[in-house]
Amino acid sequence: MAASGAGSPGRLVQYVVVRSDLVHNLSWNLGAVITQACHAATAAIQLHYSDPDTQRYLAELDSMHKVVLGVPDEAALSGLSKSLTEAGVSHKLWIEQPENIPTCLALKPYPKEAVQPLLRKFKLFK
């Protein structure tokens, strides 16, 4: 599943998954959490810049599609990262420095149908 190629059918989506406990339990302000998601999304694009799906996603600049999901805590985020790695799904786990806190992860752009089943149990971030 790691690389699906530019000829893949379906809409390209970049999924970003954020720890909801940062806001709800640890009192991070929303701006700081949004910044973490931006870091992860940008890093995932940079790491997979030459990937055909990433290039197609960037070429459709005015119609980019992102979905931001929430996970309850660090353990859930780490578990998801492990599951994605095992499934061959390219992503970036963002670890805020210098605190060394895993805050979110972002997948490189994929056709929605290629990765949505792995993320189905997570709800939209709120």
Automatic annotation (TrEMBL):
Q: Which reaction does it catalyse?
A: an N-acyl-L-alpha-aminoacyl-tRNA + H2O = an N-acyl-L-amino acid + a tRNA + H(+)
* Gene Ontology molecular-function annotations: peptidyl-tRNA hydrolase activity
- Which Pfam families does the UniProt record give? PTH2
Respond yes or no to whether keyword Hydrolase is given for this record. yes
Q: Which InterPro entries match?
A: Pep_tRNA_hydro_II_dom_sf (IPR023476), PTH2 (IPR002833), PTRHD1 (IPR042237)
Q: Record's superkingdom?
A: Eukaryota
Q: Which UniProt keywords apply?
A: Hydrolase
Spell out the SUPFAM superfamilies in the cross-references: Peptidyl-tRNA hydrolase II
* EC number, UniProt record: 3.1.1.29
Q: What class of enzyme is it?
A: hydrolase
Q: Which CDD domains match?
A: PTH2_like
Q: What is this protein called?
A: peptidyl-tRNA hydrolase
